[in-house]
Write a structure and sequence with these properties.
Number of helices of chain A: 12
Radius of gyration of chain B: 24 Å
Structural class of chain B: alpha/beta
Strand order of the largest sheet of chain B: 5-6-4-1-2-3-23
Largest interface: A-B, 35 and 42 residues
CATH architecture of the largest domain in chain B: 2-Layer Sandwich
Distance between the termini of chain B: 49 Å
CATH class of the largest domain in chain A: Alpha Beta
Strand content of chain B: 15-25%
Shape of chain B: globular
CATH topology of the largest domain in chain B: Nucleotidyltransferase, domain 5
Oligomer: heterodimer
Number of strands of chain A: 5
Radius of gyration of chain A: 20 Å
Strand order of the largest sheet of chain A: 2-1-3-4-5
Number of domains of chain B: 4
């Protein structure tokens, strides 16, 4: 017992999700009992159960709850907005509070997206989103963990995030910009050899007379001064900043120039790279 | 009759090591090493990128200039050298051989198709000194060992060959720790390989006070009551006792009179601080619980929270790689019969601390520290050149499967757990619960009585009667840029003071320059005329000048 107590004391707060099946002495706070989470979660069924399944990253429960709701005649749009997205909002909140970790986020994100997919199938078209974004990993680079996180955060925040995958030739990126007219384009690279395509992407966009409000660049070896050496680009520090940048473009009509100047303010936290 | 010599060469990402051998007695005569690689940059991708930017020929020349300098300081008559064997990873060997490298710079087909690159074979080959401009007797033979596969180079072959486990029954884990670690899990002769881009932190680079292993660097720390006892490398690269210091504030609790003054911390020193810090609670990831959030070591050396996260992520890459290999191979890490650690970093690290921080599986029972296996295999080739053919058949006959970590869904899941541990402070029991939830094996508890087999005192066992010589390497790259106004902005922005400007000519010292990972010179140029790719080796500039002079005559 003492061992677990010691481990537990290393947590910032006495917060242990029951799903870890860890027996501890004293009160274990379930994630849904967190006061701020309570304010987010819906109170009526079946939305509550749908949101809880996402909160717990339980894909099976999420799918069966969504299917039950659809059979009961609920609208797919309501299931997405009042159930799935609310669960994901709570997950994002617990993540920023430091109670949830990266893997929680990934699992909950998958559960949410599976639910959305089922709803969209019934709907017959894509559900209403805040807007479209496009993400890719630089040509010649296989490292996509960062890109996957960016896509997940964007989707969790209500964006239709188009995922072009890894090792994406520049021509494909240009085609996607032409097709989707995204409000945010993101490119990531781990290797210094491959990040050199970012300025080339901008060059090709300009040649075609295309423009995006911002082209977020980030990943392993990518640095701010490199990114700011060409136009249209913004250096992205953390994957979870992506939806905040997208929000500011959407709501406040911010441009890449504004994002460079007001990055810390827009993402709502101190960012040493921008200090 | 005059003595005939052989030279064994290891080209590593962090430096060149050379040894002269007397062919008659097979004894080592002398050893020369460099404390950095002659090309700018901190990792092998930087070297690759440099070669792509400035051109393969210039890069090859810079590397060979350095190697020629190193072998000169071996203190033998180079005209009597009849055999040279060289080992290293595929990138270094390709730069040495001056063959195609771009297939190693990009992953996937898109970039290679666009650039019309045909990957070379990288089989075992014997070449002449003239082919690569190596300053030894022109009749000497140069042996280049084969790569196992495209992704797995001769350095990995060396560690497997020297561990001698390819024909043994059992489960063995072999790793060559470095900025780009080669890892192999061998199960009854079947080899599962991967390479983990652990990053330069593991060699002490990208750590504020970090340094490559060299005289005066802190290479290990031991617990002495509440203090940490420093271990510092002496001039012969052997660890000696240093001061006992309170890590939370830097107070010296016991001074060691004979201790060398410390000039930096090696990767193994950082691992030691990480291990001790986790044990006594000074580190509570991702924080350091001292008043100034630093860990203090001898002679005002310190580690920051950023350093701790960097080394943590490097170690996390190893643990995630080991688990991924084991899951792919369908074995449990706790069933491993023996763990082999190759390379300088795997030699100087205290294996008990490696167990503690996850650099090797905590359940490892039999641990072998092999030292520099690339150099050892090069020595074997010098003594018996017929080994080259044997290595070729081993490499081609190997039943091996390469796991590309970057595209492995298993690795992605596990590495995200590592990021949660080191960046977000997720507790380790949650890490294990997550592994369980994903259906993977848990990390087995620490072995109670691990056996450590360390045969030699140094990563290079025999330095020879002439001893160790440390060779300084570096060349000057030079250019005159059209439109340069001599504003000196590039010079002021260079964090390494590598740039000087004389009469409108920019000169860059390659031994100081951080290369493609930095490029502050290019990025800070107000007129955007600084083109790194236009820099040329001073020797080439002289050659061009002579040529134009001849033309004008």
């Amino acid at each position: 017992m003492s061992n677990i107590e010691e481990l537990e004391s290393k947590l910032d707060q006495n917060f242990v999700a029951i799903r870890y099946n860890v027996e501890i002495e004293g009160p274990a706070i379930r994630p849904e009992n967190d006061l701020d989470v309570r304010n987010i979660l819906p109170t009526e069924e079946p939305y509550k159960s749908i949101a809880l399944a996402v909160l717990y990253g339980d894909m099976e429960a999420s799918l069966s709850n969504v299917n039950d709701g659809l059979e009961a005649g609920l609208s797919p749009v309501d299931i997405i907005n009042n159930g799935l997205m609310k669960g994901m909002d709570a997950v994002s909140l617990l993540y920023t509070k430091g109670f949830y970790f990266l893997p929680d986020l990934m699992l909950s994100g998958d559960s949410m997206m599976e639910g959305v997919r089922v709803c969209e199938k019934i709907l017959g078209h894509k559900s209403e989103t805040k807007g479209t974004t496009v993400s890719f990993v630089a040509e010649g680079d296989p490292h996509d963990i960062g890109k996957n996180l960016v896509v997940m955060f964007l989707r969790a925040n209500g964006y239709d995030a188009v995922d072009l995958g890894r090792d994406v030739p520049t021509t494909e990126v240009i085609d996607a910009v032409e097709k989707y007219k995204p409000l945010l384009l993101t490119g990531t690279a781990l290797m210094t050899t491959t990040m050199t395509v970012f300025p080339k992407v901008v060059e090709e966009l300009q040649k075609k007379g295309l423009e995006v409000p911002a082209f977020g660049c980030g990943g392993g070896s990518v640095r701010k001064d490199f990114v700011e050496s060409f136009p249209m680009s913004v250096y992205g520090v953390e994957a979870y900043h992506a939806p905040k940048l997208a929000d500011s473009i959407l709501k406040d009509k911010k441009t890449w120039k504004d994002l460079r100047k007001e990055y810390s303010k827009i993402v709502g936290e101190f960012v040493s790279e921008y200090a | 009759m005059k003595n005939k010599y052989g030279i064994a060469l290891d080209i590593g990402t962090s430096g060149i090591r050379a040894q002269a051998l007397d062919l008659k007695s097979s004894k080592v005569i002398s050893t020369a090493i460099t404390l950095r690689h002659p090309l700018p940059g901190a990792n092998v991708v930087d070297h690759l990128h440099f070669a792509i930017e400035v051109g393969r020929d210039t890069t090859h020349k810079l590397l060979l200039d350095a190697i020629n300098k190193v072998i000169k300081s071996l203190n033998i008559d180079l005209q009597n050298v009849t055999r040279v064997a060289v080992c290293g990873n595929s990138i270094q060997l390709s730069l040495f051989h001056n063959i195609e490298i771009r297939d190693l710079a990009y992953w996937g087909q898109h970039a290679l198709d666009r650039l019309k690159v045909t990957p070379p074979k990288r089989d075992a080959i014997i070449i002449t000194p003239e082919k690569v401009d190596l300053d030894v007797n022109s009749k000497a033979e140069i042996y280049i060992p084969p790569a196992i596969k495209h992704e797995i180079g001769a350095d990995a072959l060396a560690m497997l060959f020297k561990a001698d486990i390819l024909e043994k029954e059992g489960i063995f884990l072999v790793s060559d720790f470095g900025t780009n670690a080669e890892i192999a899990l061998v199960i009854n002769g079947e080899v599962y390989t991967c390479s983990a881009a652990a990053g330069p932190a593991i060699e002490g680079q990208m750590i504020e006070k970090g340094r490559l292993a060299s005289p005066g660097t802190i290479c290990d720390l031991e617990l002495a009551d509440y203090a940490w006892k420093t271990r510092i490398l002496d001039d012969n690269l052997i660890a000696q006792d240093g001061d006992e210091v309170d890590p939370s504030n830097g107070k010296i609790l016991s001074h060691e009179e004979d201790s060398a003054k410390s000039i930096g911390i090696t990767g193994t020193g950082v691992i030691a601080a990480f291990s001790l810090g986790l044990d006594n609670g000074l580190i509570n990831l991702p924080k350091i619980k001292s008043s100034d959030h630093q860990i203090h070591l001898q002679d005002e050396m310190y580690l920051t929270e950023k350093d701790i996260v960097n080394i943590g992520k490097a170690l996390g890459a190893f643990r995630a790689a080991h688990l991924t290999l084991a899951e792919e191979a369908g074995v449990l890490l706790e069933d491993i019969d023996a763990t082999y650690m190759a390379g300088a970093s795997g030699f100087y690290v205290d294996p008990l601390k490696s167990l503690n921080v996850g650099q090797i599986p905590p359940s490892s029972q039999e641990i072998y520290q092999m030292g520099n296996t690339s150099l050892a295999m090069a020595r074997d080739l010098i003594i018996d050149p017929s080994l080259l053919e044997k290595l070729q058949s081993i490499a081609k006959g190997m039943r091996s499967k390469h796991i590309m970590l970057a595209t492995s869904p298993i690795f992605e899941k596990i590495y995200s757990l590592e990021l949660a541990l080191f960046e977000q402070g997720m507790p380790f029991w949650m890490y294990n619960e997550w592994l369980n939830k994903y259906g993977f094996q848990k990390v087995a508890p620490r072995s109670t009585n691990p056996q450590i087999h360390r045969i030699f005192e140094r990563d290079i066992p025999e330095l020879g009667k002439e001893g160790l010589h440390i060779t300084k390497v570096g060349s000057i790259l030079e250019a005159k840029f059209e439109g340069c106004t001599n504003c000196m902005t590039c010079m002021e922005h260079c964090p390494e003071n590598a740039i000087t400007i004389e009469n409108g000519r920019i000169k860059v010292r390659t031994d100081l320059c951080s290369g493609m990972g930095c490029l502050k010179c290019v990025l800070s140029c107000p007129n955007k005329v600084f083109k790194y790719g236009k820099l040329l080796n001073s020797e080439e500039i002289k050659a061009i000048q002579i040529e134009t002079e001849n033309n004008t005559q």
